[in-house]
Amino acid sequence: MTPKMRQVLLQNKNALKQFKNDLPNKPLSQYDRYMKSIANSQRLITTGAAMFGSGLAGSLMTTKSFANFEQDAKYYQTLLDQVTKKNIEWQRETLKLAGVTGASIADINKGIYQSLSSGVPEDNIMQFMKTVTEASIGGRTTVEDTVNTVTTIMNAYKIPAEQADALLGKLFVTVKNGKIEFRELNSTISDFASTGSLGNLDINELLAAVSALTQGAGIAPAEAGTAINRFIMSIISAQDESKKFGKIDRIGFRCSISSQSRDCSFSK
C-alpha cells in the first residue's frame, strides 16, 4: 500500500469514527460536511481498491454503505415540497434506527418513501417508521412490505398513523392464530381492504376471517383473500338490493363475519 493510500484510508477511518461518536448530538449544520468527508474518502479508496485485495474489503464495504446513504435518502425526498432541516433529521434518525434494529438503511428509506406516498403526515414519519421497522424484524419481512401492509388498511379504513402500533398488534395476532406468514399479509389484505371498508365491515372481523380460513379451513393465504373479497362483494350487492326493496330509509340489510359464523339479517 502506497503512503497516499494509507493516508486516505486513515482519513476515511477517522471520518467514520468521528461520525459514529458524534452521531447522537451532532449539529445539523455539520451533517453535510461529515457525509461529504466519508463520500470523498470512498471515491479515493475505490480508485485503488483493486490493488489491495481482501484486506481492504471490510473497510470498503462499510464506507460504501455510508457513501450511498445520501443517495438513498433522495429516494423519498422527491416527494417533499422542500428539503428542510427536519428532513436532514430523518436521515440521522434513519442511521440510528438501522443501528438499533439491524434493518438496512436502503430498506428504511424505501419504507419512508412508501409512507409518504401513502399519506402518512411528515410530522409522524419517524415515529411511524420506528414502529413498522421493529415490526418488520419481528415479522421476518422487509420494512417496505410492512409499510405497505399497514398503510393499505390505514387508507381503506381512515386509521391515523398514531394507531399504527395497535394495528400491527392485530396483524401479529392474525399471524399467530392463522396459518400465514407476516410477509403474506400484504397481498392477502390488499384483496379485500377497500371492499371491506366499502361494505362497512369491521377490519377486526376480516382479520379473524383470515386466521380462520388459513388455519381452520386450510385455505392458502392468497385464496383466502380472494374468498373474503368475493363474500364482501356479495354483501355489498345484497345491501344494494335490500335498499331498493326497503326504500332505503325503512329497512336495512346487515351482515357480519367471524371465525365461527356468517350472519345476515334485515333490520329496521
Q: What is the approximate shape?
A: elongated
Provide the succession of SSEs.
HHHHHHHHHHHHHEE
* Strand order in space, largest sheet: 1-2
**How many domains would you count in the coordinates?**
3
Distance between the termini: 86 Å
List low-confidence stretches.
Answer: 42-62, 245-253, 257-262, 264-268
* Rg calc: 25 Å
Percentage of residues in helical conformation:
55-70%
Mean pLDDT: 75
Number of helices: 13
Strand residue content: under 5%
Major β-sheet annotation: 2 strands, antiparallel
Broad structural category: mainly alpha
The tally of beta strands, per DSSP, is 2
Secondary structure elements and their pairing?
Elements lengths: L2 H20 L8 H18 L8 H11 L1 H9 L7 H17 L3 H13 L7 H14 L4 H15 L6 H14 L7 H5 L3 H6 L4 H14 L4 H25 L6 E6 L4 E6 L1
Antiparallel strand pairs: 1-2
